[in-house]
Specification:
alpha/beta, 2 domains, six-stranded mixed sheet, four-stranded antiparallel sheet, 13 strands, about 30% helix, globular
Length: about 290
C-alpha cells in the first residue's frame, strides 16, 4: 500500500525551481532515507507530502487523498528541520498538550523513556539544551501512534549517544510495522537506518534504490594499501592519504591492481572494497553528466 506519493511534482519559489518533475512513492512498512546537499529540494518535498506546501504542478497524495485533509494528517508524525517549543511549558506538559490531540496517544512515561527524556520531564523546554530540544521535537512525532513518520534532519545537534538513542527508537517503530521517511545530512545515519535511498540533487531524483544499488550506480571501488611511494597510475579518480594508508578510487579495481603489480612499486596490506555511501553520494550529486535513472 502506498502511503505517500509525489507524481511529476514541481515547485517554484518565484524564479527558483526547487523541485523539477519529481516522482516518489513511500509504501507501508518502508524506511526510506532521503539524501541531498543543501538546496537540493529535500525539505520542500517533505513539506509537500505532509500538506504544508502546495505543488506548482503535479500531484501529491497522502493515504490516497489530499495531504491537507485533517483526517489524513492525523495519521502522520512530523519533525520539521526547525521547531519551536513553548519555552515556559515543562517537557511533560508539552507531551501532554500534544497527546490531547490524539485518541490513543503513547503514554507519557513510555515516550520519555524511549527518547531518553525521563530526567527532563519537569524542566521547562526553554531551559533544555539544543540536543534535548531536538530529542523532544522528534519524540512528539511519535505521540499519536502514526502510520507514517516524516523526519527532517532529526539528529542535528545531537551528540553520539543521543543520536544512537534516536536511532533505536526509529528502528523500534519500524520493526513494529511503522513507516519512516527520513531526511538527513548524516550519511552514516541513513546507511545505518534506511533500507531504501533516494538521492535528490538540483530538484531532481538522481537515484532511488537500496544502499548497495546506489553505490553500484557510481561504479567506483576503493583500493587501499600501504606504500612509501606511489607512481602515477591510469584510471585513478581520486587519491586520499589517511593515517599512513593510501586510498585510490577507481572504476576498474582489477586493472588498477594489475597496474600496481607491474609497476614494481613496493606495497602491502592491499584491500579492495565497495565505495561508502558518502562516496556514492558525492559522485552522484557532483556529476557533470545527465544522471542515469536507477
Amino acid at each position: 500500500m502506498i502511503l505517500a506519493r509525489a507524481d511529476q511534482v514541481s515547485r517554484r519559489y518565484g524564479e527558483v525551481l526547487a523541485l523539477d518533475r519529481v516522482d516518489l512513492e513511500v509504501r507501508a512498512g518502508e524506511l526510506v532515507g532521503l539524501l541531498g546537499p543543501n538546496g537540493a529540494g529535500k525539505s520542500t518535498l517533505l513539506n509537500l507530502l505532509v500538506g504544508l506546501r502546495r505543488p506548482t504542478s503535479g500531484r501529491v497524495e497522502l493515504f490516497g487523498g489530499d495531504p491537507r485533509d485533517a483526517a489524513n494528517r492525523q495519521r502522520i508524525g512530523v519533525t520539521p528541520q526547525e521547531t519551536g517549543l513553548p519555552a515556559t511549558l515543562r517537557v511533560g506538559e508539552v507531551i501532554d498538550f500534544v497527546s490531547a490531540h490524539y485518541p490513543d496517544p503513547v503514554p507519557r512515561d513510555e515516550l520519555l523513556d524511549r527518547f531518553g527524556l525521563t530526567a527532563q520531564v519537569k524542566r521547562q523546554s526553554g531551559g533544555l539544551s539544543g540536543g534535548q530540544k531536538r530529542r523532544l521535537a522528534v519524540a512528539l512525532a511519535f505521540v499519536g501512534r502514526p502510520r507514517l513518520v516524516v523526519l527532517d534532519e532529526p539528529t542535528t545537534g545531537l551528540d553520539v549517544e543521543a543520536r544512537h538513542t534516536l536511532w533505536e527508537a526509529i528502528r523500534s517503530f519500524h520493526a513494529d510495522g511503522g513507516t519512516v521517511l527520513l531526511s538527513s545530512h548524516y550519511l552514516e545515519e541513513v546507511e545505518a537506518l534506511a533500507r531504501r535511498i533516494v538521492v535528490i540533487g538540483q530538484g531532481r531524483v538522481l537515484a532511488d534504490d537500496s544502499v548497495d544499488a546506489v553505490r553500484a550506480v557510481v561504479g567506483v571501488r576503493r583500493v587501499s594499501l600501504t606504500t612509501d611511494a606511489l607512481p602515477t597510475l591510469p584510471g585513478v579518480a581520486r587519491t586520499e592519504h589517511v593515517d599512513g594508508r593510501t586510498h585510490l578510487l577507481t572504476a576498474d579495481a582489477d586493472q588498477l591492481v594489475r597496474d600496481l603489480v607491474t609497476s614494481g612499486v613496493d606495497f602491502r596490506d592491499l584491500e579492495v572494497r565497495p565505495t561508502s555511501l558518502e562516496e556514492a553520494f558525492l559522485a552522484i550529486t557532483t556529476a557533470d553528466t545527465e544522471p542515469t535513472p536507477v
